[in-house]
Specification:
Shape: elongated
Order of helices and strands: HHHHEEHEHEHEEHHHHH
Number of strands: 6
Distance between the termini: 53 Å
Structural class: alpha+beta
Oligomer: single chain
Strand order of the largest sheet: 3-2-1-6-5-4
CATH architecture of the largest domain: 2-Layer Sandwich
Mean pLDDT: 79
Largest sheet: 6 strands, antiparallel
Radius of gyration: 31 Å
Number of helices: 12
CATH superfamily of the largest domain: GAF domain
CATH topology of the largest domain: Beta-Lactamase
Low-confidence stretches: 1-8, 294-317
């Protein structure tokens, strides 16, 4: 992938950084000193752009207020040369930024294309951080979010494999409740990705993970699958010693949204395959049971319509249609999954909810159906399905 190749990016960035460095040195020698001057290391296009803006503002102040200091500037030739150099550096920076943006956008498509052949949900989670590194980040991490609890799932770094394992293990030992003090809380409230700077100086971070990462700045995006917030994606440029910027934030946001759709499709396929397999197993079991009964025609008693005790005209509470039992949409979804034979842990995993939440849903289902067991509730579901 072209963007993941650092040398490929440096070939385009280096001329821009050189041009801006020369302009900054020229401005410091020609213009009166500022109370706040450019002390940032020019190590990236964003830092170079900020430096150019500061020089432009200083030149505008000098021209507007006549603040030229004759001991610093020859009013004509030197200032004109500085303006010419500024315009040339601006053009170089703008072209480099456009080239970089085109490469990064292309890399998003390439990274997503690399996920197309992956059908397993678990494999997709593990492949996600590697795809993030293809977007131009040095390191990528994906985390699960279940009931507002954030737990790292997997991470990837081409240069420091041991770090990824340490980071994930540290996070799994100390899952973090997502509250309003965390920068990632904005991902819960909004679809927009976030950019976090001065990371090691901030008190409002996931300390067990961020301190381990040693990151200076990072971007993060959310993952939404089937309408539910299921995870976060993080990326930084730790080894390049570059700060992430708004372009990084936007691109990771686009990738996170697209990854959510890929994950949703895999979840549906995986769930459908499991349901089909379990239904086939149930059908085979029913067939064996019927064969073992060896019923004869004479042993079957058919009810006479209208006869005393006929239940067709007067359905009891236990035979009401499920649609009349007051089940919520989520409870109906849990009941359908119960009918496939899955246990509470599998239901919780597939619906991205906690085990305790599943237990609560099952309890409500049994109460509303008047059932005394899961088997009785499942029987009601099959009976209702046969009447439809």
């Amino acid at each position: 992938m072209p963007v993941a190749d650092p040398s490929f990016s440096r070939l385009r960035v280096r001329p821009a950084l050189t041009a801006v460095t020369e302009v900054v040195a020229l401005a410091k020698g020609l213009l009166p000193p500022m109370s706040v001057w450019i002390d940032d290391e020019l190590d990236s296009l964003p830092s170079a752009s900020r430096a150019l803006r500061m020089v432009w503002r200083r030149v505008e102040e000098v021209l507007r207020y006549g603040a030229l200091d004759e001991t610093h500037v020859s009013p004509g030739r030197d200032l004109a040369f500085l303006l010419l150099s500024l315009r040339r550096a601006d053009e170089i920076i703008r072209k480099a930024e456009l080239d970089r943006l085109a490469l990064r956008v292309s890399a998003v498509g390439d990274a997503l294309a690399g996920l197309d052949g992956i059908g397993s949900v678990e494999q997709l989670w593990n492949a996600c951080p590697r795809a993030v590194s293809q977007l131009g980040f040095d390191r990528g991490m994906v985390s699960l979010v279940v009931d507002m609890v954030w737990t790292p799932k997997s991470a990837h770094s081409d240069r420091e494999a041991a770090w990824t394992q340490q980071l994930v293990e540290s996070g799994k030992r100390s899952p973090r409740n997502i509250n309003s003090s965390l920068p990632e809380f904005d991902l819960v409230r909004s679809h927009k990705a976030i950019l976090v700077t001065d990371v090691q100086q901030r008190p409002d971070i996931y300390e067990e993970v961020v301190r381990t990462s040693r990151s200076r700045s990072y971007v993060a995006a959310r993952i939404v699958a089937n309408g539910n917030l299921v995870g976060f994606i993080h990326g930084d440029r730790y080894f390049s010693r570059e700060s992430v910027d708004d372009i990084d934030r936007s691109l990771l946001g686009v990738f996170g949204e697209a990854f959510g759709h890929v994950l949703s499709r895999a979840l549906v396929i995986e769930r459908s395959t499991a349901v089909q397999s379990r239904l086939s197993s149930i059908a085979a079991g029913i067939g064996e049971a019927v064969t073992g009964l060896n019923w004869s025609q004479d042993e079957v008693v058919y009810p006479i319509p209208g006869a005393p005790g006929d239940r067709m005209d007067d359905l009891g509470a236990a035979e009401l249609p499920l649609s009349d039992c007051g089940l919520t949409g989520r409870e109906m979804e849990v009941l359908k999954m119960m009918a496939t034979g899955v246990d509470n842990a599998e239901i919780a995993r597939d619906l991205f909810i906690a085990n305790e939440t599943v237990k609560s849903h099952v309890k409500h289902v049994l109460r509303k159906l008047g059932a005394t067991s899961r088997a009785e509730a499942v029987a009601r579901w099959f009976n209702d399905a046969s009447r439809r």
